[in-house]
Design brief:
Elements: H1 2-9, H2 12-17, H3 20-36, E1 44-47, E2 50-52, H4 54-73, H5 83-102, H6 106-115, H7 117-127, H8 133-162, H9 177-190, H10 199-206, H11 209-231, H12 235-260, H13 266-286, H14 290-321, H15 332-335, H16 337-350, H17 357-372, H18 376-399, H19 414-429
Antiparallel strand pairs: 1-2
Helix pairs in contact: 3-4, 4-5, 4-11, 4-14, 5-6, 5-7, 5-11, 6-8, 7-8, 8-9, 8-10, 9-11, 10-13, 11-13, 11-14, 12-13, 12-18, 13-14, 13-17, 13-18, 14-16, 14-17, 14-19, 16-18, 16-19
Length: about 450
């Protein structure tokens, strides 16, 4: 594992020479190195408290892939005065995410969990859209910092009581709800769970496309990853108290899906749809069944690609219209007919249509939810219906309608098509390798 981390560290000098495409090439090369590396049932490739297992394997590959696509999507920054600093922020985000997903010690994971905020904050502040980005950056910072302090206290308590901070250590049995709450609140804010979600739409709307991509594609997944890791430490706590988070997710995903239908901003709608999907992902994890855990994991991967792709599409139209409003982003089928297919594919995959990985994951999560509580079926019907509604709403409002100029026509760049295809292909190609998940 150390060889991959050293590979990333030795890329640092390239950031200040400003070789954008060379850095992208090395990111993709690193991703291919990870792909050919074996996937392990429990921590393998262990060196200096770093290791890879089934949970972290896919998320590390996703981190490197989205980081490379962040650079590809930010062509407007290329050649500007601060382009080297932007590359450095992307690089810091990538390395902190890789280290979160591969460390075996809680305190190191906590350190990089907090550290990942700094480069994202700099990206929002430096390349965001409106002056309101100052407020959204503060929302992001203080929500995460305030909620993650209890987690630090839990980690200190575990070290003082048991003398270890490893994820594979047996910490005995605890039945304290306060312990459970303090352990999970940081991850619930990051996920984000309904009622802890107010920072997310603000951060998304004010962030540049690269910030939105990494935020939706990976920083939300840290919450799910942390819950999965801590679930293996205190299973009895989750069995006793997961109904509390499950209830919030169940109601929240239905309410947030309704909130999506009243949005006037394209990015805001995609941000709220992320909350609805991650609430569903959380319900799969809290059911603590094999179907639920695998379904949640696949939904994290699928949502990371699909949501990131939708933010890229929103940015493609923003670069031409200079607005994210639904009232101006209309008639895109006439204005950019070649992009309509991409909009259709991503909106379909966003509402979990086959043959996407989102479809498989949603079926698994629905099974696990019904196993956990049979009354979930009523909520599942509403969730599926409203998810389809806001995905149709997004597609039909942007693509159809009367375009506001009489004669105008635009083609997408090769860079934009490459960006969308790289997001799209893994969404249904992963299904071909589904058998390796169940061995």
């Amino acid at each position: 594992m150390m060889k991959f981390i050293l590979f990333v560290f030795f890329l640092t000098p390239l950031l200040f020479i400003n070789y954008w495409f060379l850095i992208q090439f090395f990111f993709i090369f690193l991703m291919l190195l990870f792909l050919v590396n074996s996937c392990y049932g429990f921590f393998g490739s262990v060196s200096y408290f770093f290791g890879i297992d089934n949970i972290s394997y896919g998320l590390i590959i996703l981190s490197i892939m989205i980081s490379s696509l962040m650079i590809l999507s930010s062509s407007s920054i290329f050649g500007s005065l601060m382009s080297s600093f932007f590359l450095f922020c992307c690089y810091l985000l990538m390395i902190s995410l890789i280290l979160i997903f591969c460390v075996m010690k809680m305190i190191i994971m906590y350190f990089f969990f907090e550290f990942s905020l700094i480069p994202l904050f700099l990206i929002i502040m430096g390349w965001g859209y409106q002056p309101e980005r100052l407020i959204s950056g503060l929302y992001l910072f203080f929500y995460t910092l305030l909620a993650s302090l209890p987690l630090l206290l839990v980690i200190i308590y575990l070290y003082m009581s048991f003398g270890s901070m490893s994820f594979d250590y047996n910490f005995g049995v605890s039945l304290s709800f306060m312990m459970h709450f303090m352990m999970l609140i940081a991850f619930m804010v990051k996920l984000p769970l309904y009622m802890f979600h107010l920072w997310l739409p603000k951060a998304h709307v004010q962030a540049p496309v690269s910030g939105s991509m990494i935020l939706a594609g990976l920083l939300l997944k840290i919450g799910g990853y942390g819950i999965l890791r801590f679930m293996f430490i205190y299973e009895y706590l989750f069995i006793n108290f997961s109904w509390f988070w499950y209830s919030l997710s169940l109601v929240g995903s239905c309410l947030v899906s309704l909130v999506c239908l009243i949005q006037g901003d394209v990015k805001c709608l995609i941000a709220y749809s992320s909350i609805a999907h991650m609430c569903m992902c959380l319900m799969g994890m809290l059911s603590m069944t094999k179907f639920g855990l695998i379904g949640s994991y696949l939904m994290m991967i699928g949502h990371g690609l699909c949501s990131s792709g939708l933010f890229c599409l929103a940015n493609i139209s923003y670069e031409r219209f200079l607005s994210r409003s639904f009232f101006i982003n209309k008639g895109l089928m006439l204005f950019m007919p070649s992009m309509s297919m991409m909009w259709f594919m991503f909106c379909s995959f966003n509402m979990s249509c086959p043959p996407s990985i989102n479809f498989i994951s949603e079926i698994m999560i629905m099974n696990s939810m019904i196993m956990y509580w049979s009354g979930s079926l009523i909520f599942i019907i509403f969730m599926s219906f409203f998810t389809a509604c806001f995905s149709f709403y997004l597609f039909s409002f942007t693509q159809h309608g009367k375009y506001h100029n009489l004669y105008c026509y635009s083609l997408g760049n090769v860079r934009e098509y490459l960006l969308m295809i790289v997001h799209l292909m893994p969404l249904f190609l992963i299904i071909l390798f589904m058998d390796c998940i169940f061995w």
